[in-house]
Amino acid sequence: MRLKISLLREPKHQELVSCVGWTNAEELYSCSDDHQIVKWNLLTSETSLIVKLPDDIYPIDLHWFPKSIGLKKQTQAESFVLTSSDGKFHLISKLGRVEKSVEAHCGAVLAGRWNYEGTALITVGEDGQVKIWSKSGMLRSILAQQGTPVYSVAWGPDSEKVLYTAGKQLIIKPLQPNAKILQWKAHDGIILKVDWNSVNDLILSAGEDCKYKVWDSYGRLFYSSQPHEHPITSVAWAPDGELFAVGSFHTLRLCDKTGWSYALEKPNTGSIFNIAWSIDGTQMAGACGNGQVVFAHVVEQRWEWKNFEVTLTKRRTMQVRNVLNDAVDLLEFRDRVIKASLNYGHLVVSTSLQCYVFSTKNWNTPLIFDLKEGTVSLILQAERHFLLVDGGGIYLYSYEGRFISSPKFPGMRTDILNAQMVSLSNDTIAIKDKADEKIIFLFEASSGKPLGDGKILSHKNEILEIAVDQKGLTSERKIAFIDKNRDLYITSVKRFGKEEQIIKLGTMVHTLAWCDTSNILCGLQDTRFTVWYYPNTVYVDRDILPKTLFERDASEFSKNPHIVSFVGNQVTIRRADGSLVHISISPYPAILHEYVSSSKWEDAVRLCRFVKEQTMWACLAAMAVANRDMTTAEIAYASIGEIDKVQYINSIKDLPSKESKMAHMLMFSGNIQEAEMVLLQAGLIYQAIQINIDLYNWERALELAVKHKTHVDTVLAYRQKFLETFGKQETNKRYLQYAEGLQVDWDKIKAKIEMEITKERERSSSITGKNLMGCPVSMRSISR
Fold first, then answer.
1. Model confidence, pTM
2. DSSP string across 94-107
3. 203 belongs to a structural domain
């Protein structure tokens, strides 16, 4: 990725340009110390003078009023705030008319910013005051007062907090009175510029110590640059939070959100005092000290998938290269490319007006459809369809270009969604709520309606990243997520009636990804790279989960690495310095998943015998139990030395009825309540009581016996025997109540138990007989 720089031969301004701002993706306003406001049209390459300000107004900062206010959309910004050195800020219309001038500070007003909703304006000045104003320019409150000038200010993502500078310190102050203020020393020199991104919640700062730094919203340092030759005079986030730009003397740098540098340009501009990104994030403009306005377009972005590499060579041209045969295709577009995604055999490209869908099998005939709103901020792909996110909503399309659905939820803000907050599979869309970060909304892909009975997924802590698995049945779809404690959890997305368990898979997990071809999960865990070959093991037999993992040292990836993709058996990780590392994992677990999904149990056993790895046998054991295949489970557990489980599985095989087998399988997986429910629904009351006795759930065993008026004496007998073994006296009031005057007769109890077992056998055989009566004659003769 690099920057394509555009500079005019002769500057349009006579003095230094102090600030710039985009009205839409192709139109920019610039303000200069020559008192002129100039409009730049990038489509026609024309400039025009909008207004010449009075000679006593020297502009310092400019910010356009937000385009979208709640659900009300404007096609483009209609007015902006301009701060100046005379202590005033001015509300100016798009045509250049000064609507209002407000005395705001003693000394220059150094920065002014609208909040995201456009309901409040914040200004800071040389007098050290931070003030909040209404939309019409009425003073609401003085947020802070200090002895040093405040050079820069930024709103928090939810417009509930404000970040501002205080010499070498950064301060985050909530708007609520008496709320805790966060303050820390950020630089060794005076801080000149800050920016806070609403999508990734990261903070940028730049100072006279010639460094730029990236922080999280708790004041923890993510990245610190090497000292430059000159002070850093400007920093700005791209709207989607994936990139940021840094400006200095004769210097413009493009960086990744983690801090490392994509490109460094040295335009002849003097100091770049202000940087503004266009709304679509494809280009930026810089206000230069020599009167120039520098334009920089982001080109040479790359997308990779299997043997294909796609590069954005120009604003409207892409190059596709097949590395297997070195075939090269050029893709030409009518408008400039804004976003693209390459996955699952398709390249999806959004331009300013249209969406193009290419198949990797045929690059010549793309499918093209018009977009509702041009600025696509996110593209996500699944095997059957893809998701587009823009300022107006979330839209799901098939690869044939057919609109499928558009999920909505209360308070939805699409401008702040990114790939960590949205996840897509063939049947499910998961979206993390930004208003309450403990909540995940789950939608059916086909209809856009809430999944299951409409219950949301709620967690006890704030969630940072979510990912839905890609393969398998809809009813078994799982979602993995990382919370703010860096714990990794997994749960089912289907939400019918009972509360689904949220189970912890790991701790200190920084990034995660599901494989695109099978339900294998990988993550970077503290100092280890971990692969969960069969994450569902936690639902089946948690004891063997450690045996289903693959782990290797991750210290080579340095600090804050990120998993870019997990395709087939190859994981791509981006290190903190920007370099890509490719890791290949064993291909056998994916083959095992394939065999099991096709119920090829003999092939699965054969594969495990060939590979001779404990990990494979442990995965097969869990898969067999999950799919109720006892024979395979027995072989697999024997191979990993779990003898007690082999014996239990053998005992399950000898049970007379299908319901009993099912109940004991559920007990094996730890689902006691479900096991009991299966037996009660089948009318096997004694068996339901017996499993509670076996598990020493004495209260529940007695409750069932009393409720169904059977085997009360059996429960009391077993309880008495249990207490005698440990030499204890009965203290439970309910047991004392029912045991009063009752003599335990073990012969009678054994006879009753025998009768229950016989009854169950007879019932089971009668059901089998009925089933056979419905079979063809040949089938009945075979059974005989």
1. 0.84
2. TTS-EEEEEE--SS
3. yes
| pLDDT (0 to 100) of residue 129 | 93
Q: Which of 347, 448, 355 is nearest to 396 (CA)?
A: 448
Q: Is residue 283 part of a domain?
A: yes
CA 84/CA 61 separation, integer angstroms: 7
Q: Are 650 and 726 in contact (CB under 8 A)?
A: no
CB neighbours of residue 408 within 10 Å: 13
718-728 residues labelled b (16+ CB within 10 A) or e (exposed): bbeeeeeeeee
Flag whether 479 is in a domain.
no
Domain total of the chain: 2
Edge-to-edge strand list for the sheet holding 293-299: 2-6, 293-299, 283-288, 272-277
CATH number for the domain harbouring residue 283? 2.130.10.10
What residues have CB less than 8 Å from 613, skipping those under 6 apart?
Answer: 586, 588
Structural domain of 230: 16-298
Tracing tokens 């295949």 back to the chain, one arrives at 629
Phi, psi of 561, deg, nearest 5: -75, 165
CA–centroid distance for 167 within its chain: 36
Is residue 356 a part of any domain in this protein? no
Residue pointed to by tokens 């095992």: 592
Q: What is the pLDDT of residue 694?
A: 83
3-state SS, 640-704, equals CCCHHHHHHHHHHHCCCCHHHHHHHHHHHCCCHHHHHHHHHHCCCHHHHHHHHHHCCCHHHHHHH
Query: Of 230, 264, 298, which closes a domain?
Result: 298
75 pLDDT higher than 70: no
Structure tokens at 206: 């730049």
Q: How far apart are CA 755 and CA 417, in angstroms?
A: 63
Q: How far apart are CA 663 and CA 665, in angstroms?
A: 5
Tell which of 298, 332, 354 closes a domain.
298
The average pLDDT across 632-645 equals 89
Residue 325: Cβ within 10 Å count: 8
Using alpha carbons only, how large is the chain's radius of gyration in Å? Answer: 33
- Contacts of residues 748-754 at CB distance under 8 Å and 24 or more positions apart, as own/partner, are 748/713, 749/713, 749/714, 749/717, 752/711, 752/714, 753/686, 753/714
CA distance 772 to 415: 61
pLDDT tens for each residue of 312-352: 999 899 999 999 999 999 999 998 899 999 999 999 999 98
Tens-place pLDDT, residues 665-677: 777 777 778 778 8
Confidence of residue 781 (pLDDT cuts 50, 70, 90): very low
